[in-house]
# Entry
Amino acid sequence: MIRLLLALSAAAFAVPAFAQDAASPSDKKPEQPIPPPLVSATRHTGTFGGARVAFTATAGETYLKGEDGTPKASIFSTAYVKDARDPNRPVTFLFNGGPGSGSVWLHMGAFGPKRVAIPSDARDDGAPPFPIVDNPDSLLDVTDIVFIDPVGTGFSHALGKTDPKEYWGVTQDAKSVAEFIRIWLNENGRWNSPKYLGGESYGTTRSAAVVNQLEGQFNDVSLNGIILISTILDFGAQANVPGNEMPYVLYLPSMAAAAYHHGKAPADAGTLEAFVEEARRFAIGDYASALLQGQALKGERRADIRRRLARFTGLSEQFLEEADLRVSDSRFYKQLLRDRGLTIGRLDARYTGRDYDNAGEEPDNDPSFYGIDAGYTAAINSWVRDGLKFNTERHYTTIGPVGDWDWNLGGGEGKYYKNVAPYLAKAMRENSGLKVFVAQGYFDFATPFFGAEYALSRTGVPAERVQFAYYGSGHMVYVRDEDRAKLSRDIRAFIRSR
# Structure
């Protein structure tokens, strides 16, 4: 009986093993065919810039195809186009940055017909429900708008057997976005419309790389304007690596702004703008000169620089001396308000947070990011799925991993020095009608305003066609109500000025 039970037991365990061994590759489920693009079009009306506008919103997928016509990637976009369609009306293409960020921030924070209303005064956005309200600051009175989510962001993704890494790099990403723009112009009959391109954060890097793809060849797509919000073009100058003195110079005016906001500036600082300008002059002048002297900086000259550096940073001379007069941005977030047990934000230094303890060298997290992310995530999903009737099982990626990003800009110096500002400068030199608008927040440490000024003041940039505007907020300048309204007015005037 025991031998019989053992034999039956062995047979029972052998059945699934036999079934697994019998399966062959030809028995596997065939790869599912790629479905047609999912698209939803809805009609709306709203008041923007004081004008009543009827428009069609198209939320949907556009397929990028290989040379053999096989779909390789799906780009999700949301286009807002005024009724009735006018082929001579401006159209503006917008995206965010990361790399790895969907266009949710500009879409639901600044320029879409709806926006999420989070606290304007640098307080945490809390828990739902988050108000989704009409946005009179949208630009739909002066331009149609197309929000683009590059591959790996939003609902955009690789198709079939395509490896998404094919799209993860400065040039690869730019080529895919440029291809999308060409397809959109084809399908909507807008080749002769005035065209604007814009992005925020890495989206400004993408803007420069995309204009290189659009205008850097003879079958070019000519642009009227580029909108840069929280700009990062020259990664080499801002790289926090040992031996590179430029980040200390470029971050100093932002440190002065943060010190001013949190009551750490001296009594004779004057206005924020005046104090920041004073810090600019010191940073690019005496401070830069002092840093270049390295260990040769000694005595009274060193003491003078240390005293003036303390004036602008709000930090003690003892701390500055221990840091060898070189304070990284990450140390500054922790040190400025250490006496109050607070850290300040990287994206927006107006925000404050409390760490696990007060002893660390750097903050646990960025209070200016966890202070806004919940509201935006809820808003984009609610608006696109319920308001625009785009129904998909995919999750919207607000900010997600896009693998190892390929920063190689090609041959020559592009292999070593990551700076896309020359792309922008070349496009402007070869297109006399191309202008650039640059929006910078005083309290932004992710892309400090002095870094943007530095990158766009180099040789070869037509400075007379670059317009700067400044705001009393941080990286997402539009989270502050006054700045969102000002940004809208500034860009509206920029588009009308053509």
In short: Residues 246-370 form one domain. The CA atoms of residues 347 and 369 lie 7 Å apart. The mean pLDDT is 92. The chain is about 35% helix and 15% strand.
